[in-house]
Amino acid sequence: MSIFKKNFYFLLFIVFFLSPITLIQGQSSEIEAVLTWSTDTYTHPAYYGKVLPTRESSVEVVANVFFQEVNPQELIYNWFLDDRIQNENSGEGKQIFRFNMGGSSAKKSIKLEIKNQEGATIGQPYYLVIKPQEPEIILKTNSLFNGYFGITPKYQVSSNKKIVFSVQPYFFNIKNIEELNYQWELGEEKAVLTDEKSPDILTLEIGQLVNSFTRNLVVKAENKNNPLQKARLTAEINFKP
What we know:
By secondary structure, the chain is mainly β. The chain folds into two domains: 32-130, Sandwich (Immunoglobulin-like), CATH 2.60.40.10; 136-240, Immunoglobulin-like. It is 11% helix and 47% strand. A hairpin with a 2-residue loop joins strand 10 (144-149) and strand 11. The radius of gyration is 30 Å and the shape is elongated. The relative contact order is 0.15.
């Protein structure tokens, strides 16, 4: 085999094996970003799920950027809320976008465009949609849980028992439960609290029952600073001798 042919095959070997490496290096220079968000509504300390915003909640969106060629703080971030550019929150190094959900129940649409120092757009726009959640309350008790009737929880209590009901609020724009007003109703009457300092707790002292009967227990929670922000829960209580 001639020296020319040997060199030719050697060059083919280099092109064949080094071309994929060049392609991989090109792909690694592309920008990658992940949008994450959080809010500051109240949840019970034992809650480990996603904290959801309600109306008038503050939301923080963070652009987590992975880009080898440039420091993310040197990139330009253009934030859009419902298709409107947010000039005050946009600019060099502004990876965090904060906004208020407003008083509407409509979802909020967030878009992010990333540019370099020359003004050229890098990658594709990133999108995020956040919908406000209505505040909720959950009822906890030491009585026998008896399933659901539709969405209404059912409980069973018997004679000579002390039953304690407590409320756990979720997704209110508050810092602590003292910022909520509570109202309890048993049947058609307002329930009397045994401790006014703990309005989120209702205690029922059950005497000797002669007959079985059913009453609805209604509990309402309302934000003292925003009366329009409230939640209601109805439970069915079955009293048995």
